[in-house]
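Weekly modeling sync, notes
Attendees: AB, CL, MP (scribe)

Item 1: holo prediction request
CL wants a bound-state model with arginine before deciding which constructs to order. AB pointed out that an apo prediction alone won't tell us much about the pocket. Agreed to run with the ligand included and paste results into these notes for async review.

Input as submitted:
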Amino acid sequence: MTGAPSETRLARPPVRAAIVELLSHMRDGKEIREYLNRFSELDQERFAVIKVGGAIIEDQLEDLARALAFLQSVGLAPIVVHGGGPQLNAALEAAGFPEERIDGLRITSPDAMGAVRDTLTAVNVKLVQAIRDQGGRAASIPSGVFEAELVDEARLGRVGEPSAVRLDLVAAAAKAGQAPILGCLGDTADGRLVNVNADSAVRALVGQLQPYKIVFLTGTGALLDEAGGPISTVNLATDFDELMAQDWVAGGMRLKLQEIKRLLDGLPLSSSVSITRPDQLAKELFTHAGAGTLVRKGERIDEVTDLTALDQDRALALIAESFGRPVKPGYFDRLDFDRAFVTENYRAAAITARLGDTVYLDKFAVLDAARGEGLGGAVWKRLVAYAPRLYWRSRRDNPINEFYFAVCDSAIKRGEWTVFQRGESDLSRLPALAEEIAGLPASLEDI
Ligand code: ARG
């Protein structure tokens, strides 16, 4: 090891220390390592684009800088794009340019451009400095990335829509081991500075880089449901139309969902969007449960009522991988098949059988790689909508039991099995059904 460059030797202890710190705060070290490996394997230019609103830089600067410096210390290199709305409002107001908007876009008179440039540059430098204060390395890139066209000079003034993204400065920063911190000052072909909306800038960057993750850091840190609680996952393929039909999905949330759909439509299926807060970023990225809202393009869920319409080989492969062992030969021949809810790529499935007039969940399988996506949850939702009265069983050591206990109405232990039910209105049927279900032959191979 004598020939190892000093850089490598210097870089190691802080990385390990950082991981240890992270692990000590979180429950599942295995999960964290898996995500860390998954993210590290990516070409780092395509790991993540993180959008930071201007308000976060005002209100949560230290948490933000710490979170970004942390990612760098574990070897991850996201590209950060920030806005500066509140700062611009204040600065322009003070300089005698009151806020005026058309269709949500700020009118920027050429006279105000000097103040816009100075303010956005100051915001950028403030973030870079805060990251350095947390021991991170960051490069200030307030302009020079977004080539823009004037949207409507006569009405809006110096407001630009990105027409191209120049990555030279980003690449140079990355090469020097610095996190690129981008501001949204664009420039036109003839060299005039323009104000670019941060969401448009993110869209242009994402279109070009095709990142694995897009992260929106916001004050709320999640999309909120009707009751004001955070929505953990959104699977666009199954949820988008339904959400758009709700009257509580209004205003900013509607726009945000549409914007996210537009972003993900141009990306591979594996990409996802997370909405979270700076102080929750590590938990969101490195655990299955996350902290915030995860939005994926997702997969369609098919309801299969005829066994011949099921791709049995793929279903068997899914079960084998999910349970860590295959089913015994002839599984489908012995099954009194009722139906299957299966995602289009066979990454999650629920298979039900008939026990008299009772729907019995025989297999619920989710690929390890699909955990954290909300795919299992989406299948479960379809299953219980179909079978409000449902029985199933599980072995003591099944890691999914925590979920089963949370969603069941009752659980009865019978030998090596726990028999669960939800939606049973006639509780006098419970003992006999529990006996029958616990007595069903095992369908998985022994290990
Ligand atoms: N850590 C994973 C990711 O970043 C899963 C996050 C799950 N988040 C959630 N809000 N449900 O892709």
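Recorded for review: The chain has 17 helices and 19 strands.
Action items: CL to compare against the apo run; MP to circulate these notes.
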